[in-house]
Design a protein that fits this description.
Helix content: over 70%
Strand order of the largest sheet: 1-4
Shape: globular
Strand content: under 5%
Radius of gyration: 19 Å
Number of helices: 11
Number of strands: 4
Distance between the termini: 52 Å
Length: 297
């Protein structure tokens, strides 16, 4: 493999890793606070992509309005899911929350098939994202740097929120002890809803960027990216936001480079991701940046 071709694959891997990282953050934020794996999170990715699609196709809004509006709407949907399916079960055993998350996932997928139709729809990229770029001997399509830059900006905004705002400090306190944080005067319900809203907004952004990279959407489009993002979150350390980012980039880059170096194994790229999860759970269950934490009961 030539050096220019390597850098071309590397750019593709970083853009794919950006998508996994954006989605993985939602898993890790919810788990960090509630110790819940929100298996409906991948379907929120699909909802974000469809919201953007219909705002453009039906309401004829320009992309620079429809994309942010779709993210806001999807964030609201995330709050509705939390309030309707998870909040009433917080005091019950964790298996109840887990079962509810699986049920919500199947509900969203099947509602998506009924409402949106099972046939895939073409997602039209903005024209400026479909331009070939020549950087030295490396050729990439303009949506690749757009995805990477957008993800970096969103990551930076999230880290500022979590580390330098009162809401972020409350989120970090809840991740340590919900009951004690509530006794100190923090509105735990509001903070949990904000965490779901932020995670869903990032998932929506990931869904829109996924539709830009792979310009076709369908009601099950969030299943595989959701599973991959979950693996990325576990790889980085579930509950650790920087770890989710790192895990996403590692998984995305590894997938692309393995297929590039070993094209005969291209059909096994999904199996590779699951192999990483199995090996990680065997040799480092807490992930790259994770810490051993007791289960909340």
């Amino acid at each position: 493999m030539t050096l220019p071709l390597f850098f071309q694959h590397l750019a593709n891997g970083i853009s794919l890793g950006s998508l996994y990282a954006l989605i993985a953050i939602g898993y890790t934020m919810v788990y960090g606070i509630l110790r819940l794996i929100n298996f409906a999170h991948g379907d929120v990715v699909m909802l974000g992509a469809y919201m953007a699609f219909y705002l453009v196709a039906i309401f004829h809004l320009p992309w620079w309005i429809s994309f942010p509006v779709a993210i806001v709407i999807t964030a609201g949907m995330g709050v509705v899911i939390e309030r309707a399916a998870y909040k009433p079960l917080r005091e019950f055993p964790r298996i109840n929350l887990f079962t509810s998350a699986v049920a919500v996932s199947f509900l969203i997928e099947n509602l998506g098939i009924v409402i949106f139709g099972g046939r895939p729809k073409a997602f039209q990229r903005p024209a400026f994202m479909d331009i070939p770029l020549q950087i030295g001997q490396v050729t990439i399509v303009s949506y690749t740097p757009v995805i990477i830059i957008t993800a970096i900006v969103l990551f930076a905004g999230l880290l500022i929120l979590v580390n330098y705002t009162k809401t972020g400090k409350a989120m970090r306190a809840l991740s340590k002890d919900i009951e004690t944080t509530g006794l100190m005067g923090v509105d735990t319900n509001r903070i949990i809803s904000i965490a779901f809203a932020v995670g869903s907004a990032l998932a929506a952004a990931g869904g829109i960027l996924t539709a830009i990279k792979f310009p076709q959407i369908n009601p099950l489009m969030g299943v595989m990216p959701g599973l991959k993002a979950f693996i990325a979150a576990v790889l980085g350390g579930i509950g650790n936001i920087p770890g989710a980012m790192i895990g996403g980039f590692i998984l995305g880059i590894s997938e692309i480079l393995i297929v590039a170096f070993l094209p005969d194994l291209a059909g096994y790229r999904d199996a590779f991701a699951y192999s990483i999860l199995i090996l990680l759970l065997l040799f480092r269950p807490t992930g790259i940046m994770g810490e051993i934490q007791g289960e909340k009961v």
